[in-house]
Design goal:
Belongs to the sirtuin family. Class II subfamily. Pfam families: SIR2. Helix content is 34%, strand content 14%. Strands 3-2-1-7-8-9 form a six-stranded parallel β-sheet, sandwiched between helices. The protein has a three-stranded antiparallel β-sheet with strand order 5-4-6. The longest helix has 19 residues. It folds into two domains: 154 residues, TPP-binding domain (Rossmann fold, 3-Layer(aba) Sandwich), CATH 3.40.50; 106 residues, SIR2/SIRT2 'Small Domain' (2-Layer Sandwich). It is elongated and about 55 Å long. With 294 residues, the chain is of the alpha/beta class.
Length: 294
């Protein structure tokens, strides 16, 4: 069984990395095919906040145990998600996402493993993407396993809760978390929707803390790391093991690891190059300067 993704007690500690510039990254990555591992930091320029960036407010991501074990918690979650998912649904890819598309088109990038659920890599045009933690636009029944679209569920929730969206105001004025959870408090009268096929509990098709990433998905991700000559981390603090394990694996198998992220990451001690910066500008620079692999 692969390790569960769960909240971590890791606290940031500075690690000295000798190579810290884009010049260093270009030197290390030139001539190699690259696999990218992306996190919430690559989507901040699209207006989706991250969990652990230097300017992020403290957040406590929901656990799988909370969701399945507490009916009141699920009601509160679905009320907030009913507002927040619309924000994610209308966001657009940014320059960082588009830069990875161009690297793939030039055969420099083998593919992307993303910890994000926002589908912005696919929207930008990336072809090889492993959505490690699932995707925000689908919902699964925990009883019968049926999968429905989030759009369809939105129609049902709106019918069950007339006037709710209007009562909370414009979604543009509400704080949204990276998992499409809107920060609103008045949810006491919200009615969640059961599965229309069996009456079971519906859950976003997203891997929560305390829940296993499906084995087949993890195996495909390891294979994608193995298929390339280097690993590029873009916009992830690597706080949870679900992403860090790929950095460890790359380092243990002798592949250079380049990390681009604002602030300290849990993977810095494995980094060949660590660039403390936003992802969009750095990735665009790599597109301009990296030659195709030999």
């Amino acid at each position: 069984m692969f390790p569960q993704a769960r909240p971590t007690t890791w606290q940031p500690e500075p690690v000295e990395v000798a190579r810290t510039t884009v010049d260093d990254a270009v030197e290390v990555l030139s001539g190699l095919r690259i696999t990218a591992l992306t996190g919430a930091g690559i989507s901040t320029d699209s207006g989706i906040p991250d969990y652990r960036g230097p300017d992020s407010p403290p957040r406590s991501p929901m656990t799988y145990q909370q969701f399945v074990g507490d009916e009141e918690f699920r009601r509160h979650y679905w009320a907030r998600n009913h507002v927040g998912w619309q924000h994610v649904d209308r966001t657009a890819p940014n320059a960082g996402h588009r830069a990875l598309v161009r690297l793939e088109e030039q055969d420099i990038l083998a593919g992307i493993i993303t910890q994000n659920v926002d589908l912005l890599h696919e929207d930008a045009g990336s072809r090889t993407v492993i959505d490690l933690h699932g995707r925000y636009d689908r919902v699964i029944c925990l009883n019968c396993g049926r999968v429905i679209s989030r759009t369809h569920l939105a129609e049902r929730l709106t019918a069950l809760n007339p006037g709710f969206l209007e009562s909370v105001g414009d979604v543009a004025d509400i704080e949204i978390a990276p998992d499409a959870d809107a920060v609103i408090e008045s949810t006491a009268h919200f009615k969640p929707a059961p599965c229309e096929f069996c009456g079971g509990v519906l859950k976003p098709e997203i891997v929560y803390f305390g829940e296993n990433v499906p084995r087949e998905r993890v195996e495909r991700a390891f294979a994608l790391v193995d298929s390339a000559g280097a690993l590029l981390v873009a916009g992830s603090s690597l706080t949870v093991m679900s992403g860090l394990r790929f950095v460890r694996h790359a380092a243990e198998t002798g592949k250079p690891v380049v990390i681009v992220n604002r602030g300290i990451t849990r993977g810095d001690k494995y980094a060949t190059v660590k660039i403390d910066a936003g992802t969009s500008d750095v990735l665009e620079e790599l597109v301009r300067r990296l030659p195709p692999p030999a």
